[in-house]
Amino acid sequence: MPLGPAIVRGVQFSEDTLCRTRAAAAMFALPSLLLLLLSLCPGPGPGPGSEAKVTRSCTETRQVLGARGYSLSLLPPAVISGEHLRICPQEYTCCSSEIEQRLTWETEATFRGLVEESGSFLVHTLAARHRKFDEVFREMLSSSEHSLALLFHRSYGHLYSQHAPVFTGLFSRLRDYYERSGEGLEDALVDFWAQLLEKMFPLLHPHYIFSPDYLFCLTRLASSPDDSLKPFGEAPRRLRLQITRALVAARAFIQGLETGRDVVSETLKMPLSEGCRQAVMRLTGCPLCRGVPSLPPCRGFCLNVAHGCLSSQGLDPDWGAYLDGLLFLAEKLQGPFSFELAAQSVGVKISEGLVYLQENSAVVSAQVFRECGNPQRAPSRARRAPAPREEVSRLWTPAAAGAAGTEEERPTTAAGTSLNRLVWELRDRLGRVRGFWAGLALTVCANPRMAADISQEAAPCWTGAGRGRYLSPVVASSLEQLENPELDRESLRSDVQTRRRRLQLRLATTRMRAAALGRDMELEDWDEEEEDASGSGEGQHYADDWMAGAAAVAPPARLPRPPRRDTSGGKGGGVLVRHNQGRSRTGGTSVGFHTQPILILFLSALALLGPR
């Protein structure tokens, strides 16, 4: 009996001991199993900030910044808390507040330097084209003036020398207008023809004395609104058409090149906004603070920063319209608005006018005497002596005219560059820079200091927060920059200076397009009363189909300005009263039309000026 429970308890004890033994064995084997399983499981892949658990050294950052001249006493030997940082991630860092600030300035300077370097060739192109075209235009004017003076002096000697200031004064006024310091071209031409008439009319009538009042009546009659006298025929109108539209176009073209050069230069040197300054610091400066200076910024990261900053401060979309206006006007300058032909035509048109005055002297003089009265006959002793015999015998020979015309046929610069070649070079160079502003971000991010190479896009790079891949979309269009993940809306707004530069470019484009239509917007009178009186609101306009040397198409033009003299009265002013008092227009003294031989030779030879 006593053995029963004992046996049972013994059995129970044996089974309990066995369970405890098995549990202990299982617990002993569990760590080995867990270690085996951990060894077979893959670890976490690289992601943003994963190097925070690994990189705890500032050695590489200290080496890089020390080589740049930073004091090592400002650089912590090991990472510190980043709570003091304003731009970079506020985790562990190798930068103090002072280092972060200095890096912000340095990264901005680097970014701006790359932008300026990328556009230096564009500034150089516009500056070189401006210099060469300006040189050609000035030399063409000087060549035209020199040719006229040389040919007139060789042919007419002292007679031309006496009246040379009239011609040099015209070229001086043309040059002043081109240099933007003179009056309007129409005023200059009206004054020239008035002075020329004052000089030539007395030569047609050497037996009479013409007082200043009489000459004023003469010039007022010649420049009257009804244009009834026309002492020089159609020559003044044709010269005005050709020289005005050529000079207007050349001046607007030079101003356009100058404006483009200055605007582009200022834009390339633009300071960054605060938002862009911080974005550039996050792009290229924060890897140094994070202890990974060798980790290149992600290309997409760089493109978003560059597109956002450059689109808000660049010149698109006005840049393309500016280039179109520049090229369009350049084509006009070598075609219908040829500056070269206009400069050469000055002497030709003056010759035509003088010949017309000679051939129609009887009709012109009769009308002048009828309106201004008969001039006072000169005493026999006071009459002008005939010209010296050697001047009378100095004739204009066709051979000399042909030789001179060939010598001055195509003005060039000192380097021998013609206007047509300059236009061709301009078209070629501007074609290369049309997409400059749209591709500037790509150019900047192609620099290894700004982003990883495009061939290493699959490799880990700096995302702005750590090592990894940049997953945000790249916003390249200037119209979509509000979706740019790297800049806020305030940073994407154009500042006042940027808007001013864009406005300058638009104004230059508008001036060039107006000049291509023969209009000078700076001197054009926009008074509504004058527009209503002339019946046109288009201002001064010249037809495109009028070619140099062909018949001119009469444009709607402003009324001629009378000569600048102080007087009052009606047609002819007080001069009419003084010279016509007590004198009948039909029963007055008979006036003969006497012309000196030297004047006939002078006027006839003037018709031979220019290319035959």
From TrEMBL:
Similarity-based family: Belongs to the glypican family.
Membrane topology label: Lipid-anchor; GPI-anchor
Record keyword Signal present: yes
KW Signal (keyword) present: yes
Keywords on record: Cell membrane, Glycoprotein, GPI-anchor, Heparan sulfate, Lipoprotein, Membrane, Proteoglycan, Signal
Compositional bias segments (type: Acidic residues): 522-533
Subcellular location: Cell membrane
Superkingdom assignment: Eukaryota
Signal peptide bounds: 1-39
Function noted in UniProt: Cell surface proteoglycan.
The protein's name: Glypican 2
Region feature Disordered, mapped onto this chain: 375-414, 519-542, 556-590
